[in-house]
Amino acid sequence: QTKTGIALLYDEVSENAYDIRLKLTKEVLTIQKQDVVCVSGSDHSANHRTVTLRRQPVGGLGLSIKGGAEHKVPVVISKIFKDQAAEQTGMLFIGDAIIQVNGINVESATHEEVVHLLRNAGDEVTITVQYLREAPSFLKLPLGSPGPSSDHSSGTSSPLFDSGLHLNGNSTNTAPSSPSSPIANEPKYEKRWLDTLSVPLSMARISRYKTGTDKLRSNAFEVLALDGVSTGILQFYTAQESADWLRAMSTNISDLTLQNMKMANKCCSPSDQVVHMGWVNERLEGTDSSQLYKFKFLALKGSSFYIFSTPPVSTLDWVRAEKIYNLCEVLFKIHKLWLADDCWLQANLYLGIHQDFDLEDQRPYCFSVMVGHGKSHYFNVELGSELAVWEKSFQKAIFLEVQRTGSKTYMCSWQGDTLCFTVDFALGFTCFDSKTKNVLWRFKFSQLKGSSDDGKTRVKLLFQNLDTKQIETKELEFQDLTAVLHCIHSFIAAKVASVDPVFIDSQSIARKYMYSN
Predict the structure, then answer these.
(1) Of residues 254, 508, 250, the one with CA closest to residue 391
(2) Where is the composition biased (Low complexity) (predicted)?
(3) How buried is residue 84: exposed, middle or buried, by Cβ count under 10 Å (0-12/13-18/19+)?
């Protein structure tokens, strides 16, 4: 199914926006711009067309113009009147920039100069035109075929004056002149939407933020292909349109990612399957207060959590990840920044309508992944639905890894002795001497009643003795305490999920939020 619609392409340098047409298929987003093409007759370049107009007693030249050098735009034809001189040529179109009038170059002329020239050019006026493909939206030119009835231009009237040349100019000849009509062998021209850029959506990414800032663009976003080709900034007339297009493109990108995952999984063993992958923004901690975000591609595959700067395309690419962590030793955490009490704000954030000033410098839809040695990565995604998928995927990938691994053993020490501490899916916790292998103590998961740590290496685990009901404290020292605590968390969560899967679902922050909306 193909989705099409009109949008604006915003140029950050000139600060102008141009009318474009978007065409979205399952695999490609195409940007089209209007142009005038030669459809029959001698194959002249449609770039420059020279047309002779015969001024009529009623209706004059039959066109209106807008723009001029004082507005930093060429003078363009803004209206063509039905059955009058300009329309009868079949060679002039709304959006044509006037380059010459009777051989005089007017490319850098003001509006008034061109009006004066056209009004005083006599009964036969020869103009050379070229279609202005990137007509700034402030000209408010209609997008349809010629004629005032097809005015699909955006919103309000243009700040620029429309000079009508359908009124009589200084005509010396009062007798009706023959109409300007196309001659049989003259080339025929048509205004058409032409493809100017196609962006493949496989592994593409979307950004709603101004580069390197926390500022959300208003009703606008950018799509970047895997090879870095950008659509430029796509601007929409309403928040609803922007949200619809954002969702449609995100859905297509997700579907293609799913296909890529299925293909990758055919080459991988059952224990090394991709559970989920996709683009996120990672917050880079700067030395100053400004926080920069950088695109990263995350993947949950087999026993590992991968962070890439570019997506893995071939099997060999998996070894060139920036970071690889064991899934049992990471902790996924959603930031509740966007879970405000105000339902209206929640709905606005979900739609991408960003009106709350308190949140202006903070991104919604954030999560962090805490890793070993107390470090963590802070990520942001574009949509609430993506956040829900990442939460679910991390749970699934971690549970699968815990069930596959069965147990994990860590070296530790206490009072000078080197010990081994094992977390086992079936048995719970076991501590034994690393040399003699003698078991010092063993407890089930259900016996763990609490823990405290010094934030560095030392942890106290509080277990309840099943016979005496007394709490027994076990102290241990680990080289990477964070990894061990995350591992304990992963095993307990997997144990709960295996006994009561509904409970884990009920704990999902993001999914609760999604359904409430």
Answers:
(1) 508
(2) 143-160
(3) buried
Give 406-505's CATH code, choosing from 3.30.240.20, 2.30.29.30, 2.40.170.20, 3.40.605.10.
2.30.29.30
Task: Confirm whether 1-36+190-267 and 38-135 share one CATH topology.
Answer: no
**Residue tagged 């799509």 (tokens):** 223
* DSSP secondary structure of 131-151: E-TT-BGGG----SSSSGGG-
To the nearest 10°, report the CA torsion of 502, 504, 506, 510.
-140
Task: Say whether domain 1-36+190-267 belongs to CATH 1.10.10.10.
Answer: no
Please count the CA atoms within 13 angstroms of the CA of 155 that sit on its side-chain side: 12
Dig out the tokens for 168 from the structure: 């009589």
The counts of H helices and E strands in the chain are: 8, 28
Measured CA to CA, the distance from residue 34 to residue 37 in angstroms comes to: 10
Would you list the domain boundaries of the chain? 1-36+190-267, 38-135, 270-398, 406-505
Q: Count the Cβ atoms, other than its own, within 10 Å of residue 43.
A: 8
157 CB-near residues (< 8 Å, 6+ apart): 140
Whether the pLDDT of residue 4 is over 90: the answer is yes
pLDDT tens for each residue of 300-331: 999 999 999 999 988 889 999 999 999 999 99
Cβ pair 67, 106 in contact under 8 A? no
257: pLDDT strictly greater than 90: yes
Q: Are residues 282 and 209 in contact, defined by beta-carbon separation less than 8 angstroms?
A: no
For residue 40, what are the β-bridge partners?
188
What kind of architecture, by CATH, is found in domain 270-398? Roll (2.30)
The domain over range 38-135 is classified in CATH as 3.10.120.10? no
- pTM of the predicted protein model: 0.78
